[in-house]
Design a protein that fits this description.
CATH superfamily of the largest domain: CoaB-like
Strand content: 15-25%
CATH architecture of the largest domain: 3-Layer(aba) Sandwich
Radius of gyration: 27 Å
Bound molecules: flavin mononucleotide
Number of domains: 2
CATH topology of the largest domain: Rossmann fold
Number of strands: 21
Strand order of the largest sheet: 12-11-8-13-16-17-19-20
Distance between the termini: 19 Å
Helix content: 25-40%
Length: about 400
Amino acid sequence: MLSGKEIVVGITGGIAAYKAAYIVSRLKKEKAVVTIVMTKMAQEFVTPLTFQSLSAKQVITDMVMTPKQWEIEHITLAKKADAVVIVPATANFINKCAAGIADDFLSTLVLATKAPILICPAMNTNMYENRVVQESMTKLRQRGFLFIEPETGRLACGDEGAGRLASEDKILTAIRETVMPNADYAGQTVLITAGPTQEPLDEIRYISNRSSGKMGYALAREAVSRGARVILVSGPVSLAPPKGVELLGVKTARQMYEKVMANFPSSDIVIASSAVGDFRPAKLVAGKIKKKAGLNLELVANPDILKELGKKKKKKQLLVGFAAESRDLEANAKAKLKNKNLDLIIANKIADSFAKDTNKVTLIFKNSRKEALPVLAKEKLAKVILDKILSLC
Ligand SMILES: Cc1cc2nc3c(=O)[nH]c(=O)nc-3n(C[C@H](O)[C@H](O)[C@H](O)COP(=O)(O)O)c2cc1C
């Protein structure tokens, strides 16, 4: 779920510092990009080497590190973080944050970031109940800091009471909910195809189309942000892949067919938004076709990816296609929906959609229900389409 999310884990000098290792390990398993910052006192409890190994990254241990070791400035890190998690948070650190002190890397980062900050306090009960600490926590809550309350039980010092670090599961859940407040696609694998295909004629020429991939990439970005695992099978486009997607780049329709079929069994939802070439040259000419008075090209049909998916579709899988037409839009879209055993088809006119930032579509569902949408930015349309798909799940 946290794939591609930038999580900064700040470790302060408490006895529970070793527990941060489990949190980091689980964040890495969820494919988060984890950067560790340790206070000086934290390094007395656990070595940076442990966290360096777990995060596969240099641990930030000092405000002033030599450039050879340190490529990340506190401001850069503060800006790119999706969340900063202080685990464990000492009484000292909580008080420092409340007072706005910035005398080491971690406290400076806390002041510099606009990302959500989660504080996981862990300390002796008397320290936790101390008025100064309680007042600091109240102040920080009012400033928008999120607290993952400590548990009550036996503490490392032998005392019983509040102050034991919250469980790993509680901390992980809080991180997920903070980074992805709208994770209604959590647990779903969404396979998306995007962009054009290129069918080679000779070593330098190909037949292709004007698809930009913008719709598919917007859908992929939206699905990832809502907690889905997204496999994006993309033809050649000039777009940066959204953070957190598993990108499988292809050129030809046959390559797209292979990648889609290989990933179909593990997918819950397929959204086919690519403009797959229907035909390819019957033979690939070695080298370059020389200039001459004319040239007859023999074309053969490419595999029909959607049709194959429709045949193989299991009961629990949802199949969504696009129909780009220049005329008879609705009739053609309805026929495609039926022929390819789709659950939903998104019909658009070529003039409204190809290589544009906006699109005007009509959604046609399996039960013949129709919904015409106004012109929408592709990012906004991706949201609407994913809402509709979820209502079918
Ligand atoms: C053995 C030992 C255990 C400690 N455990 C805690 C703790 O669990 N929670 C806490 O708030 N402080 C604890 N402290 C005190 C902090 O280490 C101390 O306040 C330190 O200044 C914190 O520095 P930092 O907040 O910059 O990491 C402990 C100190 C020692 C020596």
